[in-house]
Every structure is written in structure tokens, then in C-alpha cells.
Amino acid sequence: MPFIPHTENEIRAMLAEIGADSIEQLFDEIPRELRIEQLSDVPPGVSEMEITRLMHARAAADGMPLSFLGAGAYEHHIPAAVWEITTRGEFYSAYTPYQAEASQGTLQVLYEYQTMMANLMAMDVSNASLYDGASGLAEACLMAVRAQRKSSRRILVAGTLHPLYRETIETIAGMQDIEFVDLAWCTEQGRILLESLKRFEDQPFDALVIPQPNFFGALEDTDALTDWAHAHNALAIGVVNPMAMALLKPPGRWGETGADIVCGEGQPLGVPLSSGGPYFGFLCCRQTLVRQMPGRIVGRTVDLDGKEGFTLTLQAREQHIRRSKATSNICTNQGLLVTAATIYMALLGAEGLKRVAAASHANARKLVDAVLDVDGVQRAFSGPYFHETVLLLDRPVADVLAQLSDSGILGGLDLAPWHPELGNALLVCATETKTDNDIDLFAAALSEALAEAEVA
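Now predict its structure.
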């Protein structure tokens, strides 16, 4: 647990060395009217033992609900070795590896991560992560605009994109005079149809954003969408679930020539769900766009003695070097989470990732089959899906979710705030962590919850 190591004598010695009478004097530049003398709502200090007991009690109050939530944050089994290694001091306290001679371990981890991600996505280059998937997409959009010699500063966005990602790119990139145009989607299949692109054929766009799987869990026709983008002088930006890429066609092979930029959320790769975070974004691209990619790129080389070594070969975003000419203002990568993801992928390997993805899809199919036997439940879309999909209920979703919560089940996501046109729509997810008993329990609880909601 963190602690302040300085004794009162040491503090006095440091103050004397710099010529200050007190710590308060160090803050004399702050006007008196802006200072708060005391924090009235902060309780008195307690011992480490007491605060540990309090935190355990607070954690226990959260319970251990059975979760069928997804929508961008997914529960996967994480081998114990992942975080046992990740939290070793060598990794846990490592920061930006500016000094290659002192950071070989950190640099090698980043190099291995980049290699794995580039292979998983079938792309040429990967950076060493961004804050999260949504900000990663914003960076991808900025990349696309920079890469176009005659930029229209307009980007076509699939309407099936995660709504929070849509809000994020508007907030980050929209403030830089980039216009985002939404692309209509098919309400029967829950995905984009190529016919919906016809009205945009004579309009200039820098890129087309293609989610795979999309927000509804459905699979897009990525080949057709990618080829359309390239035929109309636009870049194809893939927003993907990395776990799904172990099973589905990777973005680098979409269409005739593949996507140009790929981004997404790396949380499924060994990062636990923990009250909304932390997350990390990944970003890959073609070699021709590497100079437009924010982030650090680690390379492998040999020293004068012929020994293998690792070093930072590209730091396109660093404002400490390039200041206002920096590619991006993001300056802290998610190194700890990248370490966990690297260890996770190394432990599972390509075959292990494929098995996890396949098991997740199989459990999602079992879940759908089980709940369709419940009166008042039907599928919203007829198209294929990965490990989550949308159900339509015959009564308000919020009431049903409240009933499920009372039974210790997180029953999914109510889509009403973002897609009210769907009616009583519930997004549900199942990964490899769910057993047949879990699925049966959910179906029974859903049936009971629907009956209770009907009575209410």
C-alpha cells in the first residue's frame, strides 16, 4: 500500500535546503481566497488494517452477480499467471522506455505486443496502445484526414457503431472541423447494407468506419464495405473486437486489399472488468500510413557486438520532442495493460484465442436458443452474430432488468437510450465463462422477470 516515507526531520532538512520555512510557503502563489482550510467531508485517518477491512466490506456489498452484459466490455477467463507476472515490480513500476539501455525488458514486451497485434489483425504495423477503444477510433479518424492529400474532412460512419464511440469521435475529432456523416443500417439484419451507400457515391469522404462485430453483435459485410470505400477514394477504418478476430477474417484481408487502419478496445485480452476500467486501445495500420500513426513503435535490432536489442524507432506523437507538430496530444500509453495482454496472448497462443472465441460464440447461440423458448422473447435481427445479440421483449426492458438484478443477474443492456426505434430491445452477451447451468438459470430468471414485470 502507498505511504509517505519522509519523517518530520527529513521534511525540515529539505525545507532548510531550499530556504523555505514551511510546506505551506511552497504554495504561497495560490491566492488565499482560493484555498480551503479543511476538508469537512473527509473522515479522520484510519489505520491500514481498518481501511483494508472497509474496502473488503465495500467490495462484498457489490456481490457476485452473474453477468450477461457486453456492449464493449467483456468477461473472459484470465489465467492466474497473467497478472502474477504483470504485477511484478519490473513491469508494474515501469514507465516510458526513453533510455533503451535501461529498458530492454519493457521494450521487448512492447515489441512482442506489437508483433502479436499486427499478426492478429493481419496488418503491417501496430503501436503500443492508446487510452481506450473509443479514443483509438478518434485517432484513426484524425489519421485518415491527415493521410488524404485532398482531404474533404468528412468521414462516413456506420450507424451500427457503438454509440459511445460515436460520441467520443465527435468530441475529439469533431472539434477539429471534421464532419461525421451517419450511414443508415438495416433494421431487419442489424447491419449495413451496400445499397445504403449509393446516395453517397458522388460525395467526397476521407474514410468509412466499419465496426466488426457491430454494436448489436452482428457481423458486417466487411469485404463489400471495404471495397466500396477504396473504390470511392476513401480509407477503410475497422473497429474490431480483438477476440473475434481470432475466429473471423482479420481486417488486413477485408475485400481485395484489406482495411487501411484498424482500432478497437483491448480489454478482452487479459484485462479484468473492474468498475468501468481500466481499458486500453489498440491501433494498427498499413506501412504507408505509419508516419501518421500516433504512438510509439518499438523495433528489434543488434548492437555493435551482434547481440539482439530493442529500441524506440518511431515516436510520432511525442510533444516533448515535436511540441505543436506532434501527431497527437496523447502522451501516456497503457503499458501495464499492454503487458497483461501480451502475456495473455502468449499463454493462449493463436489456437487458444480461437478456442475462446469459438466457445463464446457457441455459448451465445445456446443462450439465444434457451431464451427464445420464453414467452415474450424474440430475436431482433436475422443476421449472423458473434457472442452477443439483441432480443426483443414484449414489455419495458428496464423493469425486466430490475427484476433480474434482484435475482443476482446482470441481464444485459437496455438499448432504449440509444435506439428507441427498436422498441423493447435488450443486448445480451455470453462468453466462454458461461456454463450450461448459467444459461438455464438466466432463461428461468428471465421468464420469471417477464411475468413479474407483466403483473406490475
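DSSP finds twelve helices and 15 strands in the chain.
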